[in-house]
């Protein structure tokens, strides 16, 4: 299961966002470092389910009115303060928690109600623009610290033994979630001999590795109470910025869970299904106004865009019966896999099981019944049967 990290300064709403996305029970409070150890939970990305194409009475039973939710891991890490890479706040405990994250959602307090270290200061009394770059800086300097620890020794080996530098760097950073592909790309951008780099060049290399291995999206949280000028300035950034109200999403998810309303994460409205008290109705109507203005709470959009836009994943549906779109037990569209854009039918076979990949013969497009070779590139929403000797 792919992992997405939630990061940001203390008191920005990360734990509220985490609860909104996972319904996990976590401590939420208006003071710094409510989260000490990283919380891990299962959230979902929202995709169209192909079962509607089968006709009435043949739906999969795993979607909600044609919307399928595919699981991803969400990691809510401890709050980050400036110079965490030097040990401030919870220091590298925070950064270490991000090792497995393929992308990062930077939960930023758009209301300006907490200072740089997360202390409450009142809405509008802190400029959230100051928080935009610091998370990138901390992650970059964390990677730089790992590299710099043994850099001279590694370069002596390169010079003395004439070995390639790429595998040495990859090995050094493997525990930080940096792959050989990330290293190759960053080296190609640098276009210079690593053995001759100075400190600034090594830091630039670390920043490139950060951008490749930890792409980031900004969740401009608490936007429902933020001064409009703060929201406008954040929206104008050359970044992916999604206005969010994690608190509104929590309220909707809990109301849906209780049966009071019908709500699907990512929807721009909800349906009342129970008689509620006056104050309860008033509270939900306030949230409805937020949904109407924003087009949703933004929480689901953040997760979806992190997975599909930043990481280039696509949903694919493997089946065993290409005619009925079922597995061997007759279950319609039993699985939805998230595959990297550019993945092939053989990649899907290996994803299902190593033995299936090793014994791959061909694949079938369940819609067209066309035979597909091992190098055929998958498309979002494909329904695929793998044919193998196993």
Total number of β-strand segments?
Answer: 13
Q: In the CATH hierarchy, what is the architecture of the domain at 3-38 and 77-136 and 215-306 at level 2?
A: 3-Layer(aba) Sandwich
Shape: flat
**What name does CATH use for the topology of the domain at 3-38 and 77-136 and 215-306?**
Rossmann fold
Placed side by side, the strands forming the largest sheet appear as 2-3-1-4-5-6
Q: N-to-C terminal Cα separation, in Å?
A: 25 Å
Explain this structure:
With 390 residues, the chain is α/β, with parallel strands linked by helices. Among the domains are: 3-38 and 77-136 and 215-306, P-loop containing nucleotide triphosphate hydrolases (Rossmann fold, 3-Layer(aba) Sandwich), CATH 3.40.50.300; 315-388, Beta-grasp domain (Ubiquitin-like (UB roll)), CATH 3.10.20. 36% of the residues lie in helices and 18% in strands. It has twelve helices and 13 strands. It has helices spanning 14-22, 92-97, 134-161, 165-173, 180-190, 199-213, 228-235, 246-258, 278-294, 299-310, 345-352, 354-358, and strands at 3-7, 39-48, 67-76, 103-109, 216-221, 241-243, 261-262, 271-272, 313-319, 337-340, 360-365, 371-372, 383-388. The strands form three sheets. It has a six-stranded mixed sheet, with helices on both faces. 39% of the residues are buried.
List keywords for this structure.
single chain, 390 residues, alpha/beta, Rossmann fold, 6-stranded mixed sheet, 5-stranded mixed sheet
